[in-house]
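Data deposition worksheet. Section B asks for the primary sequence of the deposited chain exactly as it was used as input, without tags or linkers unless they were present during the calculation. Section C holds the resulting structure in token form. Section D is free text for depositor observations; keep each observation to a single sentence. Incomplete worksheets are returned to the depositor.
Section A, Depositor: J.P.
Section B:
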Amino acid sequence: MKTYKTYCMPLLAFFILSIFPYNFGYSQSVIFCGGELDEAPCTGEVDLVPEEDPNCSIESLSWILDLNADTFQNVDEVGVNALQGRFPLGTHTVKFLIKGTCGEERTVEKTFEVIDCTPPEVTCYFGLFIDIHSTLGTEIWAEDFINEFFDNCSGQNYEARMNLVEDNNEDGTIDSLDYLQGPPKFENALLKCKDVGTTRLVQLWVSDVSNDTINNWSNCITTIGVRDNLNFCGEQLILQGRVRNYFQNPLANVSILNYGTGFFAETDSLGRFYYADPFYGYNYFLSAEKTSSALNGVTTFDLALIGKYILGQNTLSTPYQLIAADVNQSGTITTLDLIQIQKIILGLEENFPGDLNWIFIPEEYEFPDPKNPWEYETEIIRYNLYNHQFALNFVGVKLGDVNGSTQ
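Section C:
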């Protein structure tokens, strides 16, 4: 039920044109919030009036309203004074007929949008369990955790996403400090053999899907226990680690390779990787690689730091920075390296010499001479492995990036 008053008036008067624009006071479409009332269809409170021209005040004001902005093929409402009342969600157009004290009549048209600003109500199923159904793991889907959903504007239309809560702040515990502050990108997650015997914390995100462009998200927290009653996992050898740069920033999408078998695992957004092998007693030769542009993380600031180092200033203090500065891999840092970096920045070259943009060094490796670090290992080697490995860590060095700005 509409709560605003309407008045009959001659429609022809609204189409009196003026060659002089009237100052409306808004540079973009005006947005009003709605959806706060339990009603159908949903509406929002609108209060819209042109701003007075400082040289000609408003003497009288009337309007016609075009709901859903269909170019006034149908006039939905007419009225006088300000446009006030509750109007349905969507994009609408109002045309004001303004009579000013200067004696002119002008028509001003303005588009406004009423959007749903109220999040839906959602509750989670709690205490679910799932069995691993494959050696590769089992997928779980966000919508399977929805117990109840209600939104007065979108009915039962929703979009569901989820995330497994991780120790994002690396304080050793998984708690509310690790909750995401906004919805993730994914509708599902993969539980693996490493999760067997644990109860994973799940953050469920659900949004309404209304007839505007804004989705409102609500979330709830629940858990899921992981079992292996079908015995797909058995006793497995666990191999895991992480990849970070020399400023301790995690590196995502790094491929971990095992010599002889190829692809091994890939790091997540926190730089971590995990692999479960059902076989014991094998040798492992792990290396890392990452595909990205040579320009990634390389700026004129890196040029300045390397230039100062060449002039004798101690701007590069770690062996990893020295390796990053030696982009032509000559074992020295000279103006030739500066020239190569300049070519990359200017777009004259796509890659550094040797087409190598990244170098990954085992974190456990100790440089015999940190000031002369040109000989180093690139593999983590484990022979005849029977014990779980939880610290197979690499340090990533992006050539040309001596201040660690690459992600």
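Section D:
The domain at 121-227 is CATH 2.60.40 (Immunoglobulin-like).
Residues 1-22 have pLDDT under 50 and may be disordered.
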